[in-house]
Design a protein that fits this description.
- The protein folds into three domains: 89 residues, NAD(P)-binding Rossmann-like Domain (Rossmann fold); 155 residues, Mur-like, catalytic domain (UDP-N-acetylmuramoyl-L-alanine:D-glutamate ligase), CATH 3.40.1190.10; 160 residues, Protein-Tyrosine Phosphatase, Chain A (Alpha-Beta Complex).
- It is an alpha/beta fold.
- The chain is built from 15 helices and 17 strands.
- It starts with a strand and ends in an 18-residue tail after the last helix.
- 47% of the residues are buried.
- The chain is globular and about 60 Å long.
């Protein structure tokens, strides 16, 4: 039984915010806190969930029964210390999510790349087919305006991350594995450790859907560009079939053909004043960067592809260095921002200046820049022969939104950002 009063520390995280909505949909009173406002905290507040910006002991109501915390929140956090002082039950995000999934027909989607889009596709297919699933996904899905869909059936579709073996908290009916590469290098020492974790996840699942199965599926033309998205669609189709719900191929294909994507996955943000089309993408692994640039070249032949890249984590940047250099060199020009440290301490052996120098050393065209203000200024000087991307797992999308907002304020601008395309930035 779900506690009736729950407080969530780091509630703005993409997974935490989805879980908060799940709890609220189950009738619990949910509060939370985060260090700063974001599209997800704004979305939660619009749904009636109380979010405190700033973390302090008094944010926890006297009748709170459970505190759920993000992985990024240490036990030295003021709210976690207060919970410990009161003797409150505390759970990490994935512990709590595993509890929420108990007793349900779980479809867990894992893999280095594509799991967010695949999860959203599966959820959409099942919803369109009238199966009314509950869905928790690592991005805002355009059809739902949220990273969560409340369902009345026992089908529970969830994005399952391998970091710190979190996906082992599930015992899914169907496990979807999209791709396996070395990532989360601060936890996995090498690719063999990653493969071993996925082997354990396979053993916990009743049915496993991976590349050797889903590659046989055929899918319709998609609105989303790139062969990698066609693979995501194949995986989603195979997963839905594995549930044995007798959903016709025509129903699945119709749902996939209408899928418009998710926040920060090849998301069109708007048109800048010089006619530059601005996109944003979460790509933060060399393979994802390379595939995104490749898809952009296919979609926009003859256009210059310019990337504003925000490296995520010192460990990932260091350990996958050669891959990043090769991938970023595929852009016509790349502007590299300082490393987004997230949970890691500063590492002087890795820097955005070094990365830019290395990209130039293999024939690429890279420049290091220091701030989002600088990125926004450069964005506004680009010409109409350009497709621009803000790219990375941090908050580099804010630089693009800043440039679009400056367009709207500029009396010389005849275009500015497209409000309908930027729907998530207002939520």
């Amino acid at each position: 039984m779900i506690p009736q009063r729950i407080h969530m520390v780091g509630i703005g995280g993409i997974g935490m915010s989805a879980l908060a909505q799940y709890y609220a949909a189950q009738g619990a009173t949910v509060t939370g806190s985060d260090k700063e406002a974001s599209p997800t905290t704004e979305m939660l507040q619009a749904k009636g969930i109380t979010v405190c910006i700033g973390q302090k002991a008094e944010n926890i109501a006297a009748d709170t029964e459970l505190l759920v915390y993000s992985d990024a929140v240490p036990d030295t956090n003021e709210e976690r210390k207060e919970a410990a002082k009161r003797g409150l039950l505390q759970m990490s995000y994935f512990e709590a999510l595993g509890k929420a999934a108990e007793g349900k027909r779980v479809v867990a989607v894992a893999g280095t790349h594509g799991k967010t889009t695949t999860t959203a596709m599966i959820g959409k297919i099942l919803a369109d087919a009238g199966k009314d699933p509950t869905v928790i996904v690592g991005s805002l899905v355009s059809e739902w305006g949220s990273n969560f869909r409340a369902g009345s059936s026992d089908i529970f579709v969830v994005e399952a991350c391998e970091y710190r073996n979190h996906f082992l908290t599930f015992e899914p009916e169907v496990l979807v594995i999209t791709t396996i590469e070395w990532d989360h290098t601060d936890f996995f020492k090498n690719l063999e450790e990653v493969k071993a974790a996925f082997d354990e996840a396979r053993q916990q699942a009743r049915i496993v859907v991976e590349e050797n199965q889903y590659r046989a599926e055929t899918v319709p033309p998609l609105l989303l560009p790139g062969e990698f998205n066609s693979d995501n669609a194949r995986a989603a189709k195979a997963a839905v079939k594995a549930l044995g719900l007798n959903i016709a191929d025509e129903t699945i294909d119709r749902s996939l053909a209408a899928f418009t994507g998710t926040w920060r996955r090849f998301e069109h943000k708007g048109t800048l004043s010089q006619g530059v089309e601005l996109y944003d993408d979460y790509a933060h692994h060399p393979t994802a960067i390379e595939k995104t640039i490749e898809a952009a070249r296919t979609k926009f032949p003859g256009k210059k592809i310019i990337v504003f890249f925000h490296p995520h984590l010192y460990s990932r940047t260091r350990d996958l260095w050669g891959g990043f250099v090769k991938a970023l060199a595929r852009a016509d020009e790349v502007f590299i921002l300082p490393v987004y440290a997230a949970r890691e301490p500063h590492d002087p052996s890795v820097s955005h200046e070094m990365l830019a120098h290395a990209v130039n050393g293999v024939g690429g065209h890279a420049k290091s820049i220091r701030t989002f203000d600088e990125a926004a200024t450069i964005l506004r000087t680009l010409k109409s022969d350009t497709i621009a991307f803000t790219m990375g797992a941090g908050d580099v999308y804010k630089a693009g939104e800043q440039a679009l907002a400056e367009n709207l304020r500029s009396p010389a601008s005849g275009q500015g950002g497209n409000a309908s395309e930027r729907r998530f930035s207002a939520r």
